[in-house]
Amino acid sequence: MGTQRPNEETSGTGRRALLGAAVLGAGGAVLGMTGTARADSARRGGQGGHGGLKSLPKPTIVGHRGASGYRPEHTFGSYQLALDMGADIVEAGDLVPTKDGHLVCRHEPEIGGTTDVADHPEFADRKKTKLLDGVSTTGWFAEDFTLAELKTLRASERIPANRPHNTLYNGRWEIPTFEEVLKWQDEQTRKRGKQVWIYPELKHPTYFRKQGLPLEERVAKLLRKYRKDRRTSPVVLQSFEPTSIERLNKLVDNPLVVLLSSADTRPWDFVETGDPRTVADLVKPAGLREIASYAQGIGPTLDLIIPRDAKGNLTQPTTLVADAHKVGLVLHPWTLRNENPFLPANFRKGTDADAYGDVFGAYKAYFATGIDGVFTDQPDTGVLAREDFVSG
Ligand code: G3P
Ligand code: CA
């Protein structure tokens, strides 16, 4: 089985030791920076970051696809709100290429679920069925559109059943490019007087490389252009394909994170190259040691941190946090969401698909394992949960 997953999964150490030099709280400043240093950083725009990945507040709150619990994902409306809510780092964006080779921010190649492309009769004949990492997928694909064509579309809410209020914003924002994101990062850093961090993910690198649209070189070229390709640059790169991260490791010096889906899955690059290992192999000490030779962190699904039982209730934590820390890897699992269907069963309240469960209880359980951060669709909730955790 590859890493292709449904679009939306329904799915410590002493807490004070986690704090390090972190400055915590909503809108918390860049770690350990004086006012003058912050102003300097802001002036330098994208060259900030200084202490690298480990200088981020802990547990780090990552705005997943922005603040996608409140706005259509991967839009500047969503990214902006994530910063306003105090996210330490914004997942801007998940990256896919256009037909003419530009990188744009969409969660996956298929754009029918997050844009109004179906309402554009001029693109009706672009609807196709493709094999995407072994899964037959029907819709409209970013790689079949030029950037100019994609820019005529508008973003919409992916999961209106869970987030009916977000549909208010359908049609408001266009699809951002990665280059626009890099400029936005610098603008926001200057405007806010604190370094803004981003956490882009390379989507389906093998799939795109086979189509003559490799991602890694394009990402590296843009990072170099904006001088954000350094170990201390405030840009963390992530991918579900370990070989893509290894490739990036040769191209840039940015902090790198290998994403890990459920234990029984196999990264798609492994499927294509005949590497028999599954995620269950990668989370063993030998697998983690190998990852640590080219990456600084892992992004496991939350179930690898605390598995759920057959009823969906949390069980006991695995040794993954301790094992990863032993080889120097940080852990940023995904994804905490406030709504019932995405929470472990024992943290749900009622059965409404758009109602919030006891997400603070879930945060408490996950933070207690010693994770270094977490991806969340609702960064404001994450920031409050961290405050609770830190204050004991
Ligand atoms: O990148 C962390 C998390 O976003 C991985 O899941 O599918 O939402 O990109 P996905
Ligand atoms: Ca992602």
Automatic annotation (TrEMBL):
Q: Which GO terms describe its cellular component?
A: periplasmic space
Which keywords belong to this entry?
Answer: Glycerol metabolism, Hydrolase, Signal
Q: Which stretches make up the GP-PDE domain? A: 59-386
State its Enzyme Commission number(s). Answer: 3.1.4.46
Reactions catalysed according to its record: a sn-glycero-3-phosphodiester + H2O = an alcohol + sn-glycerol 3-phosphate + H(+)
Q: Name one GO biological process term.
A: glycerol metabolic process
Give the domain of life. Answer: Bacteria
**Protein name stated in the entry:** glycerophosphodiester phosphodiesterase
